[in-house]
Design brief:
Distance between the termini: 47 Å
Radius of gyration: 22 Å
Shape: elongated
Order of helices and strands: HHEEEEHEHEHEHHEHEHEHEEHHH
Number of strands: 12
Helix content: 40-55%
Number of helices: 13
Structural class: alpha/beta
Strand content: 25-35%
C-alpha cells in the first residue's frame, strides 16, 4: 500500500510543478509587472508611472492577459524592483513578469524562465577622455589579433589597469573570463549600478567601466553627466535579452511569446525602437525575423 501511495504522489509531481500564473492572476484579479526603476530607456519610474521600451512591450502582454481571461477590468500593477533581487522577485511570486530585459543565463534558468528576446544587448566601455593611449588602442581594437606581438600589445595596454563592472552581472563574468583568457593581471572593481561605475571612472578609481551600451549612452546624454567621460564605439559582446517569467509555466510563457512574436511581425517592435532606442538598424531588423517565433 505504501508503495502504491508513493507511486501516486510521484505521479502527481509534474502536475503540481506546473505553473498556474494565469489562474492566480484570474483569482486575484491582478497582474503584477516588475521593472527596474532606473534603467532608461528600457524602464524608468516617472512620478508614480513606469515608462520605457520594456514597459510598452509589457503593456501589450497585459492587454492579451485581459483578453485571454475575459477580464477587461483586470488590475495591472507596476512594481519597481532592485537589480540585486530582480530574479528572486519573479521566482518568489512577488511579480508575475520582470519587464526589464535580462540575459537568460543557465544559472538564472535554475530559478526562472524567459520569453523570446526583446532586444540585443551589447557590452561597451566608458573611459575618461584623457585615458592612456595604450589602453585606448587595445579597447578600440586597433592592433592585430594574432601572434606574439598582439598578445604583448594587449598586456601592455590592459595590465595593471582597473576595470569596473556591475556586481553579479553577466558583464562581470565576461570581463573576468577575458582577463583569464588573455593572461592579463588587472583589477576588477565591482559596483552596485551603472551610475556608480561611471563615477568610478570619472573619479579615477577605475580606468574603464564595462556595461550595456544603450544604458551607458542614455546616462551620458543626461545634462548632469560628467563631461570628462566618453563612450567607445566598439561593442565587445552581444547577447539577446528577454523578459523574466515564472519557471515551469508553459501556458503563460506561450502567451507572452505569442504577444512579442506578433509585435515583431506587425512592426510594433520597430516603432518602439524608434520611440525609445534611436531606431532599428538593418541588423536589428534581421534579428526581429529571427526572434519572432513562427505560428
Amino acid at each position: 500500500m505504501n508503495n502504491a501511495l508513493l507511486a501516486c504522489v510521484f505521479g502527481l509531481l509534474p502536475l503540481l510543478a506546473h505553473g498556474d500564473t494565469l489562474e492566480r492572476v484570474h483569482t486575484s484579479n491582478s497582474l503584477t509587472l516588475g521593472y527596474l526603476a532606473d534603467f532608461a530607456p528600457f524602464s524608468v519610474q516617472r512620478g508614480d508611472q513606469a515608462q520605457g521600451y520594456a514597459i510598452d512591450v509589457c503593456q501589450k502582454v497585459a492587454e492579451q492577459v485581459k483578453a485571454t481571461l475575459s477580464q477587461p477590468a483586470l488590475q495591472v500593477r507596476y512594481v519597481p524592483v532592485n537589480l540585486v533581487d530582480e530574479i528572486s522577485a519573479v521566482s518568489s511570486g512577488r511579480v508575475d513578469i520582470l519587464c526589464t530585459p535580462t540575459v537568460a543565463s543557465l544559472e538564472r534558468r535554475k530559478q526562472v524562465s524567459f520569453s523570446v528576446p526583446v532586444y540585443t544587448a551589447g557590452v561597451a566601455a566608458v573611459v575618461r577622455k584623457d585615458a592612456a593611449p595604450a589602453l585606448l588602442k587595445v579597447l578600440n581594437g586597433k592592433q592585430a589579433h594574432n601572434g606574439p606581438t598582439w598578445r604583448a600589445t594587449l598586456n601592455h595596454g590592459l595590465a595593471n589597469q582597473t576595470f569596473a563592472v556591475v556586481s553579479g552581472g553577466v558583464t562581470e563574468q565576461w570581463v573576468r573570463q577575458q582577463l583569464r583568457t588573455l593572461g592579463v593581471i588587472a583589477t576588477v572593481l565591482t559596483v552596485e549600478g551603472n551610475p556608480a561605475g561611471l563615477a568610478a571612472v570619472a573619479q579615477g578609481r577605475a580606468d574603464a567601466f564595462f556595461s550595456e551600451r544603450m544604458l551607458l549612452k542614455n546616462l551620458l546624454a543626461r545634462p548632469e553627466s560628467d563631461s570628462s567621460l566618453r563612450l567607445l564605439e566598439r561593442i565587445y559582446e552581444y547577447a539577446p535579452v528577454s523578459m523574466v517569467l515564472p519557471r515551469a509555466d508553459e501556458d503563460f510563457r506561450l502567451l507572452v511569446d505569442s504577444v512579442i512574436s506578433a509585435m515583431y511581425r506587425s512592426g510594433e517592435i520597430e516603432q518602439a525602437y524608434g520611440t525609445y532606442l534611436g531606431g532599428a538598424t538593418e541588423r536589428d531588423r534581421r534579428l526581429f525575423k529571427l526572434y519572432a517565433m513562427p505560428l
